[in-house]
Every structure is written in structure tokens, then in C-alpha cells.
Specification:
The protein is α/β, with parallel strands linked by helices. The radius of gyration is 23 Å and the shape is globular. It has 14 helices and 17 strands. The longest helix has 27 residues, at 149-175. It folds into two domains: 10-215 and 383-520, Rossmann fold, CATH 3.40.50; 219-378, no CATH class.
Length: 522
Amino acid sequence: MRSFDIFADIGLLVGFLVLAGSCAAFDGNSTCASLADSLQLENTTIISITHVSANTTVATAGSCQSTAQVSSDLCRVFAQVNTTSSSAVKFEMWLPDEWFGRFITVGNGGLGGCIDYSNLDYTSSFHFAAIGSDNGHDGDTCVFFLDHPEVINDLAFRAIHVSAERGKDIVQQYYNTTPAKSYYLGCSTGGRQGMKSALMFPDDFDGIMAGSPASDFNHLLGWSGLLSRAIGAPGTSSPSFIPDSLFPSVSAAILQQCDLLDGVKDGIITEPDDCFFDPSVLLCGTSTAGNDTNSCLTADQIEALNKIYSPVVSSEGVVLFPRLDPLAENQTSRELFFNGSMFQFTDGWWPNAIVNNTNFSFADFGVKDLVFADTINPGGIATFDGNFSEYRALGGKIVTYHGRFDGLIASGQSKRLRNLISSTLTPSNLDDFYRLFLVPGMEHCTGGPGAFNFGQDGTSLAVARNDSAHNGLLALVEWVEGDVAPGSIFGTAADGSVREHCRFPAFKSRFNGTDFECVEVA
């Protein structure tokens, strides 16, 4: 893969050389002040417009955080757009003084009520004009959804679309030109939002980077609830409850059985789908586990593990959601599922959005509830549709990725989504517009023992590399603007080691005796 440099290869942008010639003379202070006097947008109230100097900490609105870091000189626009008579979206747009002609919308996380300031800072630092919204409500909570279907619609599909429309209007007025190319960046809920945008509004973005997408959203939150139920939630009195102190023994047993499957003992399982973990080795009283209750498990607890590491299947034998990847439990997010309470987002989504009844009981929550959720699908939020034909026909490109240690969204779901798209579209080979990269050892969106830094989000800003071989966002830009598709992406681990991440399903990661490389699947 040719190494694309966002600073050196700017000639790929139509008309950029003209813009670049005036870039040195661009006066962000005065232009921002002029925008404050003149900006008018449909159904939109401008709350504030200020110019911010680089390396400044600014105050933020809403309950999610109180301050944000701004790394570049830019004009900051804060506004609210009324989406219906009963719903509204607040957004921030960051317009860098040094702009390279690109526009980007950043998504959200969790239940979507927090502006992603980290990605606004990351993308504006790479000279994108960037916009992010609160997705139509304040905070990572479901309380706003009860009896408010339009607020759910903002969450499900509308906020990203409206933000893209308003953002492009602001770019036109501020820089006096339309953006040459438009992009999207998000992970988790943000990954789902990117996929939904391609399905519903295929002309919004030329390129979409969607990490760990929360697709099949209702089944995802149903699966999350079933993970909690497997150990007896709600409550810790169930004989199947597994204290957090026992999970290190579970992870150690998984590594004992599966760490060497990829040829090297390094604490990382490259392909978790090859790991068929047998938890019975931890049964108290066996020759392997002994009777140390600090490390062995009861029969009920063993059965709970069998449920956790099995897919959710309907009574007709249809897989409704993949299993938790073995070793994905070995991260702090397990405390969200296995603490004796229902997973917090399931606990909010089901009463407030699915059944619209805050007295809903999870006492017998099961597969039947996932099937029922399909009949409701509020706001069309499921986002499990393979018909990307219009986005493909328009020339759009999608780069998606998923960590194989993801404890919040099973990485098998990204395989499942890609298989759905492939079985829906003709031709079924998706390489011309859709590429999925699986990242061994990466947790949810970032972090973990693997090579998780590849320019995928704002958490990597300090170490983000300015070339497409090591930066997924720039690989997407190169694909859109230079027609050079990413064959693989190199990530960097916390210890500085580098690993090549492979394109699924055409390539797999193989240890060659020295390091891992991507080899074509026969």
C-alpha cells in the first residue's frame, strides 16, 4: 500500500492548490467574527461563535464533560437545530484556520448524548472542518426516550444527517467554497451511525470509517442483557453468579487452552473463533482445579460460562447474536456485565424505548425479548441491512474495523454484518467499496495488549502517524481521493511494537517466526 501523507498529497483535492495559495493569508479571527455576524441556518439557533487559539482548554455545555482540549487555531460554532416540534439537536463545528478542503462528521458512543470532543480535536488537527452533535439529548442515558419517539429518531438516524447538512452549509459560508470531499468517523454507536448513514443518506459522505459498529442494535443490547442474566442478574444471590475475583482464573484457563493457536505465546488470541474454550477444567473438585474456591468454579458457574461463550440462538436455530470472544472478558468492561445488575444500557433501553414501561421486569428476560424487540425496532435503529447498493453505486467507501478483545460488542458481529452485505449485493465481492480489518488484542474501539493505535480516533491523536499505512482515517482519504484501496493497516501497541492488521475475509494473520503478516486465504 502506498503511504499517503495528508500534508504532502493535498494535490488529490480538486482545486486545493488555489485554496493552499491563500491559506497563509487566512485570518481566522476576523473571518470567525464575520461569521458570528452573518451565519443563518434553517431551523437553527446560533448559541455562540468564537475563535480559539491552539493548545487551549475550553468550557463545554451539557452534562458529559466540563472542558475540552483544542489543539489547533480554529473557529468554534455552537448551535441548536430543531429537528421537529418536539426534538432538537445541539452541535459543535470546529473550523480550522488551516483547512485542507475536507469536511467530516464525528459520531457518538453509548446511548449517544455526548458531543465527541476528542474526535473533533483529532480531525480538526488533521485539517478537516469537523462537526459533532449530542444526538438529540444530553447524556449517556435513556430517560429522554420514554414517550418521545422523535428523540429516538434523532438517535437512530436523524442527528448525523442533520449535522452533515448544517456542517456543509457552515463550510460554504465560512470558507466561501463547498468541501471537496465529505467524511464520517465513529466507533461503537458511532460505527452504527456511519452504517445507517450509508443506508439511509448515501450521498452524505464520500467515505465512512465505522469502528466496532453497534449493528443489529436491539439484539446487541438484548445479548448484553443475557450476559448479565447468565450469572443471575438482577442480583448476586444466584448460584450462577461469578464474583469478579474469579474471572482472572477464567482468563488464565482460556490462555492455557488457546494462546498458542496462532503459533506464539503472547497473551493474544489472533483468531478467537478458533478457540473452543472448555470451562470444565475450572470445576471445583477436579484434578485440574482442585478445591480452592478462590480459583475454582461450581457446576452452576461453569454452566454460566458455557452460556457466555455461546451465541444467542432462536428457537428456530437462527443466530441472533454472536458469542462473547474468549479473552474479551479480560478487561474492565466485564464489570459492566457481570456485577449482578443488568447491563446499564439494556436496563435503560428496554423500559424506555422497547416496551415504553418503566416498570418492566428483567426477572425472566430471555431470547423471547430479543424477538419481540424486532417488532418494535424504535426509529429503525437496528441497522442490520445488507442493501448498500446505492452507496456503492455513488462511489462511497467504507473502512470498518473491530478489536478481537472487544468486551462490549462481540467482534463476530462485524463478520456477521459483512456476510449479510455480501449475500445481499451483486457482485458479492465487496472489495470495491467495503473493507473490514480485524485487530487482534484490541479492546472496544481502542486499548488492550494489541497494536491498537492506527489513527482510528481521538484517543490516538498524540501518537497518530501522518501516513495511510499506519492511519486508518488517512487510508480512507487515500481510497476516496486517490483510488488506492487499503490492503492492510499497521497498528502500534503501547510498547511501540507494530503489527499488520489484515483485511477480512481475503487475508488472515500468520506468525512467520519473527512477527505477524497478512497472508492470502487459500
